[in-house]
TrEMBL record:
Record keywords: DNA-binding
Gene3D superfamilies: Potassium Channel Kv1.1, Chain A (3.30.710.10)
Pathway involvement of the protein, from the record: Protein modification; protein ubiquitination
GO MF term (any one): DNA binding
Source organism of the structure: Chlorella sorokiniana (Freshwater green alga)
Keyword DNA-binding carried by entry: yes
Domain BTB: 28-136
Protein name listed in UniProt: DNA-binding
Amino acid sequence: MDLPALDAFDASQPQAFYLGPDEEFAGLADAAVVAQGDCKLAVHTHVVSLHSRVLKSAFATGAGAGGAAEGKVCLKAPFEDFSPLTTAAFLRLLYHPDHACPANLKKLAAELPSLVRLADQLDCPGLMAKLDAFLADYADDLEMDEAVASVNFAEKMSLERLRAADIRRIASLLTAKPPEEEQDFFALPAELPAPVLLPVMAAPAAPPAPSPPADTAAKDEEDVLEAAAATSALKGLSPSALMAVLTLCVVAARRCDASKCIPKAGDLFAALPH
């Protein structure tokens, strides 16, 4: 099927974004959804119902219908709260699940939060899993305030992989040493074997490392202020996320180079309770 590029949405032809230019195929649609601005988008119920439990139920019962045209069900909720671009992108990922790959999702970066919310409201487990995995891959690029906001969003949307990756990122930021303070005697494995948390917590503390050069009073004060700023950002975390972050920090503190002891997101995802 000849479809527009994912970064080439045409607001004058929103249906072409997921159905292509084939008017005959669009004419076979047996229902419609209505996005913001009263933008009506044709859908084939047997296609979208395969990927959304909510849509399957809604089309079966007519729930949420906002009127019918030519005998076709027309759903407004929850699409009326989302833009035509978000709605068309969502439908494209339902009609063409293989398009929900990292290279394509990157082109939809600005729409991802809305896509996650829509997929969550419509109970689309397959799409949610792909969005979760994609977002988790970028957690290491986040700054502290971004990571805190991201973990809260992940918990609200039940994005477990993103939550684990965000927790790892926050713990890494809290325990990372400034480059100028890194010493050769901090030579430890970059990864921890799985299972991750319990063996490390049960292990004896590492022998004390040689003392680094003494810092000046000004440098000490700067470090304290930086640490205070970092920990104040944790106020936005849920109790369970905060406990996970602090557990990782305690574990890391028992090793020499704390930042290198934070487990990979995949290992953390497996170890954390869900």
